[in-house]
Amino acid sequence: MNVIELSKRLPRVHLIAAGTGALALGVALLMPSQEVAANKSQVTLELKAPEGSAPQLPLQPSPASTGETVPAAAGSFASLTPALPEDSVVTPEAHTPVTATVEATPEPAKEEWLRIEVRAGDNLTTLFKKAGLGANELYPMLNSIESPKALGRLKPGEFLDFVIEEGELRKLRHEKSPLVSTLVTKEDGKYRLEEVERQPEARAIYRSGTIESSLFLAGEEAGLSQGKIMELATLFGWDVDFALDIRKGDSFALIYEELFLDGKKIGDGEILAAEFTNQGKRFRTIRYTDSNGRSDYYTPEGDSMRKAFLRTPVDFARVSSRFNPNRLHPIHGTRRPHRGVDYAAATGTPIKSAGDGKVIHAGRKGGYGKTVVIQHGQAYSTLYAHMSRIKPGLRRGSRVRQGQLIGYVGSTGNSTGPHLHYEFRVNGVHRNPLTVDLPKAAPLPKKERANFEPLARDLLAQLETQAQTQLASQ
Description:
Blueprint: H1 3-9, H2 12-30, E1 42-46, E2 70-71, E3 98-101, E4 114-117, H3 124-130, H4 135-144, E5 159-165, E6 168-175, E7 180-187, E8 190-197, E9 201-210, H5 215-221, H6 226-235, E10 251-261, E11 264-278, E12 281-289, E13 295-298, E14 318-321, E15 341-344, E16 350-352, E17 357-364, E18 370-376, E19 380-390, E20 399-400, E21 405-409, E22 419-426, E23 429-431, H7 449-473
Parallel strand pairs: 1-2
Antiparallel strand pairs: 1-3, 4-5, 5-6, 6-7, 7-8, 9-10, 10-11, 11-12, 12-13, 14-15, 15-22, 16-21, 17-18, 17-20, 18-19, 19-21, 19-22, 22-23
């Protein structure tokens, strides 16, 4: 049988296969070695197929960068030499190595961002000028986007980032913080504005310390920021008077979140669980987010850490004079009852409202000097005297929340030095702010207990485990 007769009898696909095999054999004979190496854009594959299989398209070629000869799995690649009828004569072997070339896909060009810091006196016009852009780029953008004011609130220290191609603005990003930015994109002559908010990675971390002289020093030695120390004191501020009750040997421990973005720490997150031991008595709290998305802190038993009133309206001040009905007045030299507590602190120290309420007096009040009086419901009222300054805008009738700033420590009125005079009244009767029983806020609802209890057990167990591990390592 000659070649012409064979071509008439064989199907077209068999002829293609036979021709391909012959070509591969010829190339192999011309090469000085049977080894075939792959470069960055080429993969050498030894293609094999089971007998009698039909030709198939390749699925997933191996990475080109390996430069290795990889045997193809059965059925994964096309057989280049399919089986022929028994009377066919085919010279090339069925498993001839074939080199398949895979073109390397070029990486997309990276955008080049031009970053300009906002400085005092800058606006969009000056910033565009610094970027080499004029009004012909600025005003069409402002007229096209829905919320141009979103780009108008620029503050020193923030950044504007530009992508400029061939003298035209393609992208503009106003970075308000590492997590929040406004992005304007120009596509097909149209501008699109979007708010971009990134989510940081939260990592739980454990810290603990023992107080030798002050909570601030112990907290700093434990690696806590000043903000986190203040937050810790606020959590336990309903039960512990940090101006009066702190003793050497008191201790604290907490688990809180540190926030990371692109592998770099950008700040602290929430306290998840904490404990404070004061004069041998331990207080513990757990952060819990309820089914309505509201987060608060509770004791392990589900009671709110919050009370209706803060125990002290200034942080880390010193008690200079206690509640005393028979006190000898330091200025007048006569016996006058001291119906409050004096907290000595530097002028300008912030003063907070002890509870939610309505301001019934804000201004000068005789020997009290600059004074704020707040009514809390029907039964309770608090007084804050000798202020250096009342918070601007605070006036009679203003509503305040617990912990809200209301003024600053001073020495106005009859005063021998900067301090806060604080009074607490129940149904008009003066009570000792340091010892009066403070009403509690509502406990955790029963419907939330099923979710809260396992969370509390887990976090408290982590606190215990970390404490034991630290103790063992000492």
